[in-house]
Write a structure and sequence with these properties.
The protein has 16 helices and ten strands. The longest helix has 32 residues. It has a two-stranded antiparallel ribbon. Strands 3-4 form a two-stranded antiparallel ribbon. The chain has one domain.
Length: 485
């Protein structure tokens, strides 16, 4: 009898040991460095599905659309200041963006099944949160555009300082969560920051060269502003960049978090782990089927109804209301170009006309529109692409730090561009981009910094897919339908 009892205990111990070994394959200690997806002691599949091709394509589109915006904005803004002003640039691009985003959304409704259940009036995020996001984004746009307008921030400082958005993104992460980002991700972001510093170092120090154009006097770079004004607007510029980075950090939190009080109590329901760089609700999955619910709706069903175009459209619609209400900034001499409502109307009117008047059709009254027509539409196309793919990449990477790292990685590309071309001021105002290859310190620094930045991006990429494979997101195991574009 005692022998039978001992044998039964031995079998029980063996089964317990096997179970613990199996559990250990799916769970590991919280001391593991790469613990982005931890929930208690176990990892659970992330509610996102996409292919590597989609991921890489979106990443490349974000990288080059960011570079295109950095290249076109100064030329576009210089041309606008000939007949119009910065406020009109913001207002027109916001209005055109809404029209084209709405058109893209409607085309998607007619031709793509993934858009069939999407409606503009159905908010993927609570309206109050959309208002906060729109306020942050629009405020950052105003501060950045007004700061670089008419060289309030010195020309040679404008592009290099854009690299601070990645620093701000990391700071936001560490303020809210100090230990849940994997060491490899932190190392990847730090590597990119080092590469960016090397790439922009020469341009940051050379006040006689900006965007490929050699200047004779320092005043050509600083404009007709006193140093006190420059200092004030540099601070404004930094605040605008901080708000821009904060917008994507908050968007990540609103998009990827599932509120704790929305989840029904269950003995099997783990507590939610909220972080800034990876704010994800990890569902329990049984045979690949999500059993978490959110107000009677599975998280997968909820995520399948989120579209990057839809989110971007709603943010721009709410932002347009704020932009219109900020018209008064254009009649304050220290901020805008006008000093009265008459000036405001005339500047806005001329700006609209120049947007639709190519050089070939410019008459005697509008012969100084410069290159507004080509620059404006190239900029608008790049901006619409950027506004979609930035949200899309945030959704599939589930990391604001990674998203902003890709954006800022375009700085070395911009530096190489301005070593092949230069932005030349025209006699009647405005600027033109001409071919002018040269071997400069800016080119050398950009070529030195670019490989380091690319290494950082590659490490981010490897870390991301390793984490997803660990969470069960492989081509053979998916827990949710893909997001729409």
């Amino acid at each position: 009898m005692e022998d039978d009892h001992a044998e039964l205990l031995q079998i029980t111990d063996d089964e317990s040991s096997d179970t613990e070994d199996q559990d250990h394959e799916h769970c590991s200690s919280t001391e593991t460095p790469e613990d982005d997806n931890y929930l208690g002691n176990c990892r659970y599949p992330i509610t996102t599905s996409y292919s590597k091709c989609e991921f890489i394509t979106t990443k490349i589109a974000l990288l080059f659309s960011s570079a295109s915006l950095m290249i076109l904005l100064p030329a576009y803004l210089d041309s606008m200041n000939v007949k119009s002003d910065a406020y009109t640039l913001i207002l027109l691009n916001s209005s055109f963006s809404i029209l084209f985003l709405d058109l893209i959304f409607l085309i998607g409704k007619f031709f793509f099944k993934s858009y069939k259940n999407l409606w503009i009036t159905n908010y993927p995020i609570k309206l109050s949160k959309l208002i906060v996001l729109s306020f942050l984004y629009t405020s950052s746009v105003f501060l950045i555009i007004y700061a670089v307008d008419r060289k309030r921030v010195m020309c040679h400082l404008q592009d290099p300082m854009k690299g601070t958005i990645l620093v701000f993104s990391l700071l936001y992460y560490f303020i809210f969560c100090r230990k849940f980002m994997g060491l490899q991700r932190i190392f990847s972001a730090t590597t990119i920051i080092v590469g960016l510093f090397i790439a922009v170092d020469y341009g940051l120090c050379d006040e006689f060269r900006c965007r490929g154009y050699e200047r004779v006097r320092v005043s050509d770079d600083t404009g007709n502003w006193p140093w006190k004004t420059h200092t004030t607007w540099i601070v404004v510029y930094v605040v605008g960049l901080a708000l821009f980075s904060g917008f994507y950090t908050l968007l990540e939190r609103y998009l990827l978090i599932t509120e704790t009080n929305d989840i029904p109590p269950s003995n099997n329901t783990p507590s939610l782990l909220t972080t800034i760089s990876r704010t994800v609700a990890f569902p329990i999955v049984d045979n690949g089927v999500n059993i978490f619910t959110n107000n009677g709706q599975s998280i997968n069903e909820r995520n399948s109804k989120i579209s990057a175009v839809h989110i971007s459209l709603l943010i721009h619609v709410l932002g347009w209301i704020m932009i219109v209400s900020m018209f008064w900034t254009d009649i304050i001499p220290s901020i805008g170009k006008g000093s009265s409502f008459t000036d405001f109307f005339n500047l806005s009117n001329r700006g609209v006309i120049c947007h639709f008047t190519p050089k070939l059709f410019q008459n005697q009254d509008f012969n100084d529109c410069g290159n507004i027509f080509p620059f404006s539409w190239l900029f608008l196309g790049s901006y619409i692409l950027f506004s979609i793919v930035s949200v899309k990449f945030l959704m599939i990477s589930q990391s604001a730090v990674y998203t902003i790292a890709v954006m800022s990685s375009s700085l070395p590309i911009v530096g190489i561009w301005w070593s092949l071309f230069k932005l030349v001021p025209l006699q009647n105002g405005g600027s033109s981009i001409i071919w002018s290859p040269s071997l400069s310190g800016e080119l050398i620094c950009s070529l030195l910094g670019l490989p380091i930045v690319l290494i950082g991006l590659f490490l981010f990429y490897k870390s991301h897919f390793r984490d997803n494979q660990w969470s069960g997101l492989t081509s053979n195991y998916r827990t949710s339908p893909p997001h729409t574009a």
